[in-house]
Specification:
This protein has 384 residues and is an alpha+beta fold. It has 8 helices and 7 strands; from the N terminus they run ααααβααββαββαββ. It has a 5-stranded mixed beta sheet, covered by helices on one side. 18% of the residues are buried.
Length: 384
């Protein structure tokens, strides 16, 4: 016959029980102190009394005149002792009754005080990926329990947003990965089977371009996953030098696009991963080059006070769509060879370094990206 599993809740001490025990213990200690103080004061008071009232039942048949001073003092002492014993007995009885009352009241009060905790626990146990829209929404006074409930609601908000972003990311990644594979399969199955010798070079170029797009997408996803995981290394880094190296990498593309570059690189010392920070600056510069206009401008500036700033001319970006560009696979247009991961990778790297990034559309067209990280050191120009 199987032995039923024991409920672990039966063997644990609840907070309500502990609070009741603490209330009762404190009441017992204070009650005993009050009882002791009362008896001490009563003894002192009754011992200092110079007039003693003796009941007739305590007197001999001969009356008071037959008592000697010693006998009268003995009678008075016996009466004082009896009074003290009666006072102690009645005080202990009253203390026992009040202790019982304090246990009942303590249990009731602890239950009322801890009732919001049961609401918080029940809601937290119900939460899952399917119902993260639920909230505790605790009503009542603005106390520690309401702060706890509001904190958990805020945490649930962040988790809900993270899950929704993850769902969108998986859906978009699946779509983006499926598209080049479908193109390759169609090219191989249909066009390649009907192609002549003159068509093979063109088909080869198309397959290679599709393969490059898939490779860029996979590299972007790996970089995004690495930055989302957090930092594995912390090194003192000058972002100005990183920006100079990243700009040098894209200098041929800048010249080819006919862009006018303006650099103002001043020391910006941070602690972080040099590979990820180089990827951050490189992605911003790459985005500024790709989405610029012929003959436009590109500005890159670093300083301890202003952070890293990258500005570029280009098409007008609606202000309500600017922040959405930080999400994976968000693009204003489908033109170009980008996969929509550049700025989302930047955002993830900034978060991994505990910084912030702000995007803003420029009135004449283009975008301004401002990255702020924890910096140290004075600002001075960096040689190019």
């Amino acid at each position: 016959m199987p032995v039923p599993a024991e409920n672990p809740r039966l063997h644990r001490h609840s907070i309500r029980l502990r609070l009741t025990a603490h209330y009762s213990l404190l009441f017992s200690i204070t009650g005993l102190l009050l009882l002791s103080l009362t008896n001490v004061l009563f003894r002192q008071r009754i011992g200092a009394t110079t007039v003693t009232v003796v009941p007739k039942s305590e007197l001999p048949s001969g009356g008071v005149s037959t008592l000697t001073p010693g006998q009268l003092a003995a009678v008075a002492e016996r009466l004082r002792g009896n009074a003290q014993e009666q006072l102690l007995l009645m005080s202990l009885l009253a203390l026992a009754v009040m202790l019982l009352v304090s246990v009942v009241l303590g249990w009731w009060i602890a239950g009322r005080v801890l009732r919001p905790l049961h609401t918080i626990t029940a809601t937290a146990q119900r939460l899952s990926a399917a119902n993260l829209h639920e909230r505790i929404s605790l009503e009542g006074p603005d106390d520690e329990l309401k702060d706890l409930a509001d904190t958990l609601d805020a945490l649930t908000d962040r988790l809900h947003a993270a899950f929704e972003a993850q769902r969108r990311f998986v859906a978009n990644a699946s779509h983006e990965l499926r598209t080049p594979l479908a193109v390759q399969r169609a090219t191989i199955q249909i066009r390649l089977g009907r192609a002549g010798l003159d068509d093979l070079p063109r088909i080869q170029d198309e397959l290679l371009e599709t393969n490059r797009r898939s490779e860029r997408l996979i590299e972007g996803l790996l970089t995004l996953a690495a930055s989302d995981r957090g930092l594995d290394r912390h090194e003192p880094i000058d972002v100005a030098r990183v920006a100079s190296e990243a700009f040098g990498q894209w200098r041929p593309a800048i010249k080819e696009a006919g862009l006018r570059a303006e650099l103002d690189l001043r020391t910006m010392r941070v602690s972080g991963d040099p590979v990820l920070l180089f990827q951050l600056v490189s992605n911003l510069v790459q985005n500024a080059v790709r989405h610029n206009v012929p003959g436009g401008t590109l500005e890159v500036a670093t300083s301890a006070e202003g952070g890293l700033v990258v500005r570029n001319t280009g098409a007008f970006v609606p202000r309500h769509e600017v922040q959405g560009l930080l999400e994976p696979f968000r693009r204003l247009t489908r033109t170009g060879d980008g996969v929509g991961l550049g700025l989302s990778i930047v955002h993830s790297i900034v978060q991994a370094h505990g910084g912030t990034i702000e995007l803003d559309s420029r009135p004449g067209g283009g975008l301004e990206a401002r990255v702020r990280l924890a910096t140290t050191g004075a600002a001075r120009p960096v040689p190019m």
